[in-house]
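User: Round two. Same drill as before: sequence, then structure, for each protein.

Assistant: Same drill it is. First protein:
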Amino acid sequence: MTFLQSILAPLLRPLGFVPVSSANLLTPGPAQDEDDPRLDHQILRHSPTFPLSVLLLTDSYKLSHPFQYPAAKRYPSTVATLSRKARTIIEQAFEKTCDPESMALVPSRLHDFGFRGCTSVEQTIIGGTAHLLNFEGTDNVSAAYFAQYALNDGHFAGVSIPATEHSVMTSFETEKAAMLHMIETFGSSIFAVVMDSLDYGRALRELLPAVAEAKVRAGGWLVVRPDSGDIVAVVMDALNIMSKVFGYTINTRGFKVITGASVIHGDGVTLPAISRLLDAMAEAGFAAQNVAFGMGAGLLQKVNRDELSLATKLCRVVLPSGAAREVMKSPIDAPGKISLPGSFAVRLDPTAAAQGVYLPVTHAREEFTGPEGVDDESLAVEGDLLQVVYDCGPVAVQHETMAATRVRLSRDWAAAAPVPPASSRPELDGHTPDAIVYQTVSPFLRAKARRVRAEQLDRLEAAYTQDA
């Protein structure tokens, strides 16, 4: 096994990312006996879309704490969520300002520019693949290659276009020469040219008109890229000038669509910046399809565990005597850092499902198995979204292709229940934990958490009293 495979296999397979044909990357070990020093590692898979405060995965170890880190999947989950939120913003703008057939352009509207901002090639693959769950546009070659050949049966998962960077533009004697070279080489297809190497405003006002005839004669699509300045100001400058140079049409919703040209902005792009620009474009009468976005470090590097409050906590221990004790964390001065006790199952809320709303709910396992069946693995919980995919080695699970995961993700995201406001979240004995949302934790489990917390506080009080 290569170093890259050894890193990627345990990280991506539990998320449903690696097909069965790649199962030989990890070799199953024999069943453990009592003296086996290896750890019993079991990861459970969740549906690709889930609201905050729903159980994502569980792991079982003889010694849990040092091995929670290989099981942590927060990085690709956070990148995929950030990317999906961007897609939601863009889709809403398309629905408002573009013709219905233009929705086919949405998968190309957020481009992965993040390769050079990552710490390693391995990170580019993991984060870049997560982005490709939502979009097809990418300059992240490693992620596009991995997604295509390891996850999507050899079919394209990411695409890009010919484009210049500043070193290309400045290597020619003039920017006009660079532009004409791009038009001559790629002008019959779609290509992008960065415009701010020297004087962005002058390039828009003088260079674009100077090459317009050659561009139109070539018949392709020009993408202009400003790479500095305020995103709204520089993009709106480009749209206004390009609409005069190349002309435009008015779509059925009454918005301008520039003929044969558009803009991409990839400098310091954030979700608020995307919203701000799309709002400004709509106000000025331009359709959202006139612009695309590139995200680099903001997509693949500037994310952390706190973005989605992802945490791994101890919930149940089995003592040397064989007795089990359910435990939870509930710091009195930090109610938002509470955890839940016991063993769990995740099922769709039937009332929400009947209304077409996708709402996974975390339950205590004994709600379905009874207290005596919590540890009986033969007792399956009907409708449980958690699925064992790794148990001391890969298990025989048929993983879907990336194309199928994209379809499922889009369906579940569109039907997902909104996170309720803080005012509707439950109190737990005076605590108002931000990490627990009323709708996503079953009433039984909330009551159980209150009981376990009270028992832990009683033991604490008794211990302090005895010591005194």
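Second protein:
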Amino acid sequence: SNSGGYISRRCSASLRREPPPNIPGRIVLAVWWLTVVVLMNAFTGHMEATMLIRPEPQRIDSVKALTTHPNMRTLVWKGSAFEALFKNSKDVEEYQAVWKMVERSNGTYETNALYSLNNLRSVLHGKTVIVGEITTMRYHVSQASRLFRNASFYFAKEQFFPHKFAIALRKGTNTSFLDFLNKRINWVVESGLFQAWINKEYGRLDSRRSSVRPPTKPSLPSSIFEVQSVFYIYLMFTAISVAAILLEVVSVVNLKCNKKPGRVVKINVVADFISQQNDKTATFKGGNSRRHLDYRNKLARRALPHPETSPIFRRFGSSNKHMEKYRPIIL
């Protein structure tokens, strides 16, 4: 009942406009506002981030990873070296599995049909994979990226079929011409001219969030652990307020224990009046000395407060008919 009354009094006091008079109350009030304002903003930001951030789908960065999705629609450039690689590689299980996926989905297309809008939209939905040459891919994706403003394409990290150029030639082509062509291709690539041309032509592709750079750590949905620092601040202020309240309680208890009660001096005064004509003289019983009376009066004055602030009047009466007045004695 006492705790309930205390809580009700605190709640009613919190409705006032005036701040608490003591320091612990102010600290508790500050912690309360910290809870209401800061934590509310933190949860609001966390909710907005959770709603806006969309987790990326599982990436496919290698041929082996592609084989773990047997229902994935796989498209290959028809008549290219990739089709020949998957079709004729009898000793590599991954290539054979990919070729079966291509045959199951009838995924051999010409260049214009391979990078159609329907196929690119299917790639965005995570239902289709296109296997082709990187330069051609970057060109077609850059052309179609303006149609998919909120789209995000990515290229696999593994280049399972490394080549500098892919050129279709007749089997009867002159060998001397082939040697000259290969030497010129190697010179263009090794000198960096080919990469400079790629960067110049497809440099805007990075702004469209399509790049051949190794992907960074995929963004995960925001969790409660990302705002745990706010809880640490809240707990810190709560501990400070509790410590201040306990310190105040302990100090009050120590003050009450150390407070000594005031010393009380009891003085028993027995007085009588002796009538001698018209003079009235106050004397203590058992004492005829004036010096003894003054000594006792001094002790009484030292033990009691100042007479001007708290006077004590004692009136002594007599049965003598001549004593019509009373003499007050101030102790």
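The chain is about 50% helix and 10% strand.

User: Perfect.
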